[in-house]
What does this fold into?
Amino acid sequence: MGVYKIPQLETFPKGFPRLACFLDSDDCFMVYKRFGIVFSRLLLNKQDEIRQLEEELHAMDCTDAAGDGETYLMSRNEDVKRDPTSIPWSQTTPQTRPEILQKLESKILEYSELLLKANQLKALEKPSARDYRSVIHYMENDGGQVYEDEMSWIYDKEDLVSLRPGREHAWLDGMLERLLKVCRCRLVR
It folds into this structure.
C-alpha cells in the first residue's frame, strides 16, 4: 500500500509554482479571475461577424427574389450546383450562399460556445471576503514572490470567482476559525 503524500508548500520553488500550490491547498483559496470584460469583447466581436454574414445572406436572398433566382431560394440542391460566375452579387460579395451559410454555422457555433462559457463563469460565486483576504494576504506577504504587475489580477475583486464548491457552511468555517484564533489554539498558530 502506498503512502499518501500531501504537497508541502515550502517544497515548491518561489513564484508561480508556490502560488499554485497555495491556491490548490484549500478550496477556500481557489480564487481566479473571470475575465468578464474580455469575454464581453469576444462575444461582441463574434456577434458582429455573425451580423455581417447575416446581412450578406439577406442581400443575396433579396437579389435572387427580385431577379430570376427564385429557383435557388426554393431548392438547396440547385443553389449548391449554381455556377458561381452567374451569380448577380458575385462582384460585391465573392461568395456563394452555401459558403456564407457554412461560415455562419462556424461563427454561430463559436459564438454559442463562448456565450455558454461566459455564462458558466458568470454563474460561479465570488469569493467570500474572508477567503479573498486570506489569498491577498498570502500573495502580498508570505506569497510566492510573484512580480507585482503579474499579481495585479487579485486586486480586480469584482472580476474574481471562487471554485470553492458550495458555500453553505462558509459561515460556520469562519466562526470556528475566529473562535480558535481567540482561544489562541496551537493548531492555528
